Amino acid sequence: MSTKPVVVVLHNENRPSPDALAPVTDRAEVRFTQADGLADAMDGADVVFAYDFLSTALADAWHAAGSVEWVHIAAAGVDPLMTPEVRASDVVITNSRGVFDDAIAEYVLAQVLSFAKDLPRSLRLQDEARWQHRESERVAGTRALVVGTGPIGRAVARLLRAAGLEVSGSGRRERTGDPDFGDVSATEDLHEALGQADWVVAIAPLTDQTAGMFDTDAFAAMQPHARFINVGRGELVVTDDLVAALRSEQVAGAALDVVDPEPLPADHALWTLPDVMITPHNSGDFVGWRDALVDLFAENFVRWVDGRPLDNVVDTSLGYVPTTGS
Questions:
Q1: I need a labelling partner for 278 at 20 to 30 A (CA). Which of 78, 92, 243, 304 fits?
Q2: Is 257 left (phi over 0), alpha (psi -120 to 50) or beta?
Q3: Matching CATH topology for 6-99+287-305 and 101-278?
Q4: What is the CATH T-level fold of the domain 101-278, as seen in this structure?
Q5: Model's pTM, two decimal places?
Q6: Residue 289, SS3?
Q7: Which residues belong to any copy of the D-isomer specific 2-hydroxyacid dehydrogenase NAD-binding domain (predicted)?
């Protein structure tokens, strides 16, 4: 390139670390903007780095994206970007696959153990200074179904297997002999698979096909003692149906790192239902995660400037990065 490319960094109150972004600022004109200035910032820009990965501002500003060649989002899920206009364009979309895999897997294992060992109740009893003996559950030999067989789902499966759980997957197509999941059932057979699981982990990408996949019928298919863990997107779940399933004890408990809506209103029923653990969409947010996201973008930017293929290219017809066996 004869002139420096223009990179727009969409951010909220948090901005990328200057040190982490140095490989980009050294080789590009960088424009920092929040949502209200995105359209102006994109005038003549080549690249958009959606560091504010929950922002939907790109949809309203897309009319100004005439020169944009590449959009990168600082998240594994790309659903905030997947408008009809983006899908119909030639703009390359990449995501931050790989940054959160192990941290989210650790979170899932922590929630499984927390349920089995009744840790929330132990804390409540401690607050009341009550010495109340109880028995706990073993997790070894129990069955987990991981719904979503991409890289994060695989990391979850490997860690749960290491803890002694029997793991299977639910993905686009049925297969056997998978190195991480063993058996994978097809999405159309989800309800049958749900009926075999003690633990159900939702980590599927949010697409037109997966939105609302956990509804009344799905929860009715689960065993009454099963626990539901959602680390994917809140919109995978019909929230009112989950509340009803928990109230009727069709589902024994839920650990929700993502909900619909977010943030969860203070008066929402999920806050006070027993055996529900809610965390504020932070299952992957380990110490240093923000710089890790910028590092990944910076490495991809260098590839782009050098004319090499980009990593983590999203198939916009699918809404995620396709992988072998996913």
A1: 78
A2: alpha
A3: yes
A4: Rossmann fold (3.40.50)
A5: 0.93
A6: helix
A7: 110-282
Pairing of strands 253-256, 276-278: parallel
Q: Can you read off the two tokens belonging to residue 131?
A: 């010495």
3-state helix, strand, coil in the chain (%, to 5): 35, 20, 45
Between CA 282 and CA 240 the distance in angstroms is: 23
Percent of the chain topping pLDDT 70: 98
Decide if 264 contacts 271 (C-beta within 8 A): yes
Q: How far is Cα 32 from Cα 162, in angstroms, rounded to an integer?
A: 43
Query: Tens digits of per-residue pLDDT, 280-307?
Result: 999 999 999 999 999 999 999 999 999 9
Instruction: Name residue 56's amino acid.
Output: T
Q: Which long-range contacts (CB under 8 A, 24 or more apart) does 170-178 make?
A: 170/145, 170/146, 170/204, 171/325, 171/326, 172/326, 175/325, 178/149, 178/325
- Residues involved in catalysis: 233, 262, 281
Q: What's 63's DSSP letter?
A: G
Question: Is CATH 3.40.50.720 the classification given to domain 6-99+287-305?
Answer: yes
CB 74 within 8 A of CB 49: yes
- Residue 13 amino acid letter: E
Least Cα distance to 29 among 64, 58, 67, 75 occurs for 67
Q: How far is CA 295 from the centre of its chain?
A: 19
Average pLDDT score over residue span 136-148? 98
